Amino acid sequence: MAKKIAKTNAARMLDKEEILYELLHYTVEDGKVDGVSVAGKIGYPPELVYKTLVASGASKQAYVFVIPVAQELDLKKAAKAASEKKIEMIPVKDILSLTGYVRGGCSPVGMKKSFPTFVSAEAEKLSELIVSAGKIGMQIKLAPTELVSVTKGHFAELTASIQ
What pTM was computed for the model? Predict the structure, then answer.
């Protein structure tokens, strides 16, 4: 008998908003839970798999940035998108208390509180992208426009240019 998979806050929120999505599962026993490894495990190219980063501005406001797993957040571009003088990543030890999610399982959907959210501009050209479902071992595939809608987010230039 198949084990019933418990839904995460992110999945419940998407259900409530009647947003179509697909839950994807991957194994975590090998300890490889970085975004590029996860992309391989779920059988999608890293360009479609996005990571969720939480940072704070000079104003002490927290922000959520969703970028491709193989790229780095450009802090200057992030600050510009958020209209802040400066942005810095929040310490890993603060992620759970701030978002309700653990590092490596942080979803942009269904956090404890709603934070200003920015999705990397290249996602706008995709028909679907994949983000954490809010638990290590689970991902959610959905349309980027739906992600922006449910998070009340914005598309923005967030990553360093790839040469």
Answer: 0.94
